[in-house]
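sry for the spam today, last one i promise. struct tokens for design, 364 residues
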């Protein structure tokens, strides 16, 4: 990316200095004893030397990625106490979220949803699509006495990032904190996003015909997901089975329509993981701190992506789109689809094989 790749270490150091200034302003006395290694912070600490040098080299500074080192390593590099790092990490993550969320991850308005749908139609050939939905397991250590709640199907412990991504790889709605032991369908069923979708309070655009398919009647705007999620009137998933007729294969295939649009969320997760190294190994953090870090990286992803695309902030909004961490989730019932949802999917399928066909899809 051409945008500045922010480093958690630098932000930690800046916040620490602000914290020290605030303590002094309040008249809090400094500790009477500080380890001699920490006393040499200004002489040898990374903030006072390496980061200052990188600022003079614009190219190298722009590629300075967060390393997600251990608290001990960060403390040693910046010559501060480990306990100080433990306090500052969640403060930094919270500050990042609070500063950026209103401008870079706000609940989309009706016009925003309409613009997102136009993006999916133009870039990924899926009309009336308001986002791609999926869940990502973020590895973390199991909290004490948590049993199997955080133990996922991969054999690790995790919390779940549930995300809706637009056609340009931006996170538009996220839900962080679901237990790793809960299925994606269960996470969705207990999320605020799902509740708003069921209640009709997401302010999606009104139903309208598919392009060139006025004879099929008005169709709802939908989100696309994989087979781990249930079929709903506003949530399209692939047809089940392997030996499918051509129309269903065109609808399902990653090289054709639904999966082509859905893979955008997988690409966004891939970009997130490559940008922020905390996703590359298990986070040795309490779940509540891990949630703060995940939220911070998601909003920073949007911030950096917008700068890279336009050179100026975008995605300005009015209300945060994240929901509170999920609590007490359990397994939900099977994917019993309503007749209305089945009919919506069949009309999309028929559209893709007729007036909505593209030149590169299979003919037999």
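last one done:
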């Amino acid at each position: 990316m051409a945008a500045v790749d922010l480093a958690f270490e630098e932000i930690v150091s800046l916040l620490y200095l602000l914290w020290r200034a605030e303590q002094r302003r309040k008249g809090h006395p400094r500790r009477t004893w500080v380890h001699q290694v920490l006393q040499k912070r200004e002489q040898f600490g990374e903030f006072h030397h390496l980061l200052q040098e990188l600022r003079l080299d614009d190219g190298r500074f722009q590629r300075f990625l967060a390393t997600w080192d251990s608290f001990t390593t960060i403390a040693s590099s910046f010559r501060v106490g480990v306990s100080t790092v433990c306090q500052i990490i969640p403060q930094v993550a919270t500050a990042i979220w609070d500063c950026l969320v209103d401008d870079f991850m706000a609940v989309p308005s009706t016009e925003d949803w309409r613009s997102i749908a136009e993006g999916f139609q133009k870039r990924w050939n899926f009309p009336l699509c308001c986002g791609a939905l999926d869940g990502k397991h973020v590895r973390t250590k199991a909290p004490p006495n948590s049993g199997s709640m955080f133990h996922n199907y991969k054999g690790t412990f995790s919390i779940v990032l549930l995300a809706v991504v637009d056609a340009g790889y931006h996170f538009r709605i996220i839900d962080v904190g679901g237990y790793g032991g809960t299925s994606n369908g269960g996470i969705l069923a207990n999320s605020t996003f799902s509740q708003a979708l069921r209640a009709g309070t997401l302010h999606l655009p009104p139903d309208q015909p598919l392009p060139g398919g006025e004879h099929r009647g008005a169709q709802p705007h939908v989100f696309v997901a994989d087979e781990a999620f249930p079929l709903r009137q506003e949530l399209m998933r692939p047809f089940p089975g392997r030996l499918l007729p051509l129309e269903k294969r065109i609808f399902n295939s990653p090289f054709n329509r639904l999966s082509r649009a859905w893979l955008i969320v997988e690409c966004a997760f891939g970009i997130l993981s490559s940008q922020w190294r905390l996703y590359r190994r298990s986070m040795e953090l309490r779940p509540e701190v891990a949630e703060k870090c995940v939220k911070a990286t998601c909003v920073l992803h949007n911030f950096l992506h917008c700068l890279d695309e336009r050179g100026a902030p975008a995605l300005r909004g009015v209300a945060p789109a994240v929901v509170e961490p999920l609590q007490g989730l359990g397994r939900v019932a099977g994917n019993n689809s309503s007749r209305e949802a089945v009919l919506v999917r069949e009309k999309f399928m028929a559209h893709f094989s007729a007036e909505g066909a593209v030149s590169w899809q299979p003919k037999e």
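Residues 196 and 202 are 6 Å apart (CA to CA). ok im logging off now
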